[in-house]
Amino acid sequence: MRVKKAVFPVAGLGTRFLPATKSTPKEMLPLIDKPLVQYVVEEAVASGIEQILFVTGRGKRAIEDHFDHAFELETLLEDKGKTAELHEVRQIAEMAKIFFVRQKQALGLGHAILCAKEFVGAEPFAVLLGDDIIDAPVPCLGQLLDVYESYRAPVLALEKVPMVNISSYGCVRANQLAKRVYEVLDLVEKPAIIDAPSDLAIIGRYILTPGIFPILEDQAPGKGGEIQLTDALVRLSKQESIFGCQFEGLRHDCGDKLGFLKATVDMALKRDEFNGAFQDYLRMRLCR
Ligand code: G1P
């Protein structure tokens, strides 16, 4: 069955990015001129996703507005003959079929995914976490879907990270099957360095099967007192094989201030519209 549905958990409070996220959803922070969440929706759509469910919370209305038509703005742009801008804002509302559900309590990523149960039904589905922006020749989710096509089983995005950082991630013990493809043998959420089974970290892209829902329904709280998706995946791995895809591409952790800055610089260096002016500025600043 083709993967057409994606779940975006966006209820998080963005405490790593205060005070900017006090009243603005972290997903709406812009990399140059586009909110983070739009990059991730574009990745999903480019990978063949047709329906997106945002699992939202209080204070996230701006995300709904961003993916809706903006009547006044569109009329104004039309009247002024700004057709390129008009096309750009209109197509955001037409990228995919968008749905929303509220996660009424902040009980963790596993709980957020459980809120998508009715939307997902009996199909395989994707999960995309908005903090991870991945600049890749083939969209990262598309790379996971290629692995899914071969095994018809859950697939996690994996990246080798420096061991000093492993306790910020879910971590896997895995058996390499091919270049960039692994079978996941065990998983642990945010281990201490000495307990980490490898340097392979789970990055915020998943293909899951509906078998995850009955597990999440009775999943006990884990790390940080939250219902962890990683813990549910440990149990799922006893029922179905789980695979990993060490994706090709550059990942930016945009939930973190330094990661966000790096992503901004990277994206700006790639933009033709600045015509080298940004490179010149950086060179000048660094030589001072
Ligand atoms: C979540 C997952 C973790 C994963 C990470 C990827 O953690 O629980 O397993 O490695 O996303 O970004 P969070 O960063 O939301 O605390």
From TrEMBL:
Catalytic reaction annotation: alpha-D-glucose 1-phosphate + UTP + H(+) = UDP-alpha-D-glucose + diphosphate
A Gene Ontology BP annotation from the UniProt entry: UDP-alpha-D-glucose metabolic process
Domain Nucleotidyl transferase, chain residue ranges per copy: 10-265
Gene3D superfamilies registered for this protein in UniProt: Spore Coat Polysaccharide Biosynthesis Protein SpsA, Chain A
Key words, A-Z: Nucleotidyltransferase, Transferase
Gene Ontology molecular-function annotations: UTP:glucose-1-phosphate uridylyltransferase activity
SUPFAM superfamilies cross-referenced by the UniProt entry: Nucleotide-diphospho-sugar transferases
Lineage top rank: taxon: Bacteria
The EC number(s) this enzyme carries: 2.7.7.9
Similarity comment text for this entry: Belongs to the UDPGP type 2 family.
PANTHER family in the cross-refs: UTP--GLUCOSE-1-PHOSPHATE URIDYLYLTRANSFERASE
NCBIfam families: galU
Protein's UniProt name: UTP--glucose-1-phosphate uridylyltransferase
